[in-house]
């Protein structure tokens, strides 16, 4: 019988989000993507993505029954994209992956998705040249201008100092040491992710695994 850990007694959604966060901490999603939960709310994540001159900031709000249902995703600034439309508090991404399980087989949301896999697909979709066009009065020049002016009201993000910070070369190279469970002392990040008790708990649990 497996030995219970501190995470065992947390709700399923909380446990899953903590493990998703530990996955990202172990291995960066990519050099152009950063993400992390708010310290006071594991169900609200903020992420940044960049491609060429454009950096966008997103908010992902996860339901209490995650991973059975997908998060809601809000872009804070416009993107010239056929499937990005104005919505309350920002811009909504129209993507079948973000729809609850009422789609055809192999389409729509799957509870197998993690935060990392969600963000990889969002990155590819948002910056796909096939979908980029002037939309709701926005071209790339306007999108870059609006993005540079944006200051997030809910986290420390600004265009010049993204939060969480984008991965360093060290972050991108640290996957191999993690696989063999070696402890590595990492240099401090420029803008470190916020760490609350739950996030620290997830890291401890992962080290014990």
Automatic annotation (TrEMBL):
PROSITE patterns: UBC_2. The keyword Oxidoreductase does not apply. SUPFAM superfamilies: UBC-like. Keywords: Ubl conjugation pathway. Residues 12-172 form the UBC core domain. InterPro entries: Ub_conjugating_enzyme (IPR050113), UBC (IPR000608), UBQ-conjugating_enzyme/RWD (IPR016135). This is UBC core domain-containing protein.
